[in-house]
Amino acid sequence: MDKALFIAMTGAKHNMMAQTARSNNLANVNTTGFRADFEQARAMPVFGEHHPSRVYALTERPATDIQSGSFDHTGNPLDIAVQGEGWIAVQTPNGEEAYTRRGDLNIDPTGMLRTGNGLPVIGNGGPIVLPQGQHFQIGRDGSISVNAGGGAVAELVDQVKLVSAQAMGVTMEKGLDGLMRPRDFEGDLPADPIVTVESGVTETSNVNAVNELTTLLALSRQYEMNVKMMKTIDENGASAGSILRMS
Amino acid sequence: MHPALWTGKTGLQAMDVKMSTISNNLANVNTVGFKRNRAVFEDLLYQAQKMPGAQNGDDTQLPTGLQLGTGVRVTATQRQFTDGGLEVTSQPLDMAVNGRGFFRLLMPDGEISYTRNGQFHLDSEGRIVNSNGFPLEPEIVVPDNTNSITIGRDGTVTVTEAGQNNDAQEIGQVELVDFINPAGLLAMGNNVYAETAGSGAPLDGVGGEGGFGAVEQSMLELSNVSAVEELVDMITTQRAYEMNTKVVSAADEMLRNLNQTL
Predict the structure, then answer these.
(1) Smallest Cβ distance to A227: which of B8, B203, B261?
(2) Would you state the pLDDT for residue A149?
(3) Closest Cα to residue A36, out of A219, A211, A185?
(4) Partner residue opposite B40 with nearest CB, options A24, A58, A116
(5) Tell me: the pLDDT tens digits for A137-154?
(6) Spatial separation of the C-alpha atoms in residues B170 and B235, rounded to whole Å
(7) Given CB atoms, is A63 within the 8 Å cutoff of chain B?
(8) In terms of DSSP bridges, do strands B86-88 and B219-221 run parallel, antiparallel, or are they unpaired?
(9) Is-contact B172 B149, C-beta < 8 A?
(10) A66: how many CB neighbours lie within 10 A of its CB?
(11) pTM for this one?
């Protein structure tokens, strides 16, 4: 069998995978704090006994787009958005620390502060638990204070742990649960006082719809070319067969 | 089949839910005491097709992996208990809680429910009831020869009766209730909410004290739906829906192309 057929096939297959990555971005175009994934194709020569003449296509996710999304004013005092570079520390279900940009916070019945997708937010010492039946406000440095009202001095309860990957010189990488973790870094990132948040605001998804749709089209056409190649190779085989046919 | 089809489908489903939420908010833009809902989205799990650092031949390693996302879902519709605007009416039995707090109502089945809608009336027995006829809990009965009703900021109800030299007489108190997580309340329709495990236990209180809002007589709390915000949300949702349709049709076209060409 002609090996070109398989090379064209991997091309088409990896175009489909890239399409999936792009469609995930578009599905999350309205998800608070979502970070878009990049996708790229790499030429992958086949090594082995022979000369590496065959080169397959390989789709991979080189990085996640960490540009800021736009800010959506909600007026909800528990909604926060990180300004510029910086991340909100949350606790994953297995107790580890991970980082996110989604700041649509709410309080659960035990008083624990959680993100919109239910992850506890980490404060000065582990997950933040707030006293019951109070109004809260979140300051620029992530500090949570009780809104006593009537001109009383606001009492500081806890502080949302905000970290900066840039200050630590590490790259953030998206895990399988959609949360970000520093690449090649042992332990948790330290709290960074430089990172500031805006209260009453949520950060929208940073997916650029125009970019995604155009890439989607380009990938579709590239896929069709690969299918066309497969057809051509098939025709080559057919005509080779007819030439060699005796009678 | 093409995984982008399923991913696009999750996008369509999520935008559908968001659109229903928005239309319900807009339908209730004039409902007294209504609190808007917000659809909360979450990205679904990622599938690792290739792990970074995987071996690719004798001396080569993949520098980056391939993790494909599987779409989006709606995790919750979160009710937002921000205050609505206050409207002055001339009805003595209209009340608004100016801040945190709910009115407590007794349902016909004996259960307790909670509301922010302060449009109260009198029933044939003189009890203070809401528009559906559910009485306040504890029950407050207004005497039948009452001239005027005054409700204080702490919820104290005083009346003056005919033939009593206009002496004010206290007949009861409108008690307020709060929850640590009001967003966890179960909306039962009719503008009333029920306690759930998610809302936490009710915390009793008095209007204007200990963080509770004051009870304002002859005022109503309007819906906290902002028509502008909902309409803009509607536009973004509709466009996002269209983009996801585009994904589905692109994936469909790819598969058709494959079937027709080969």
Answers:
(1) B261
(2) 57
(3) A211
(4) A116
(5) 899 999 998 866 555 667
(6) 53
(7) yes
(8) antiparallel
(9) no
(10) 17
(11) 0.80
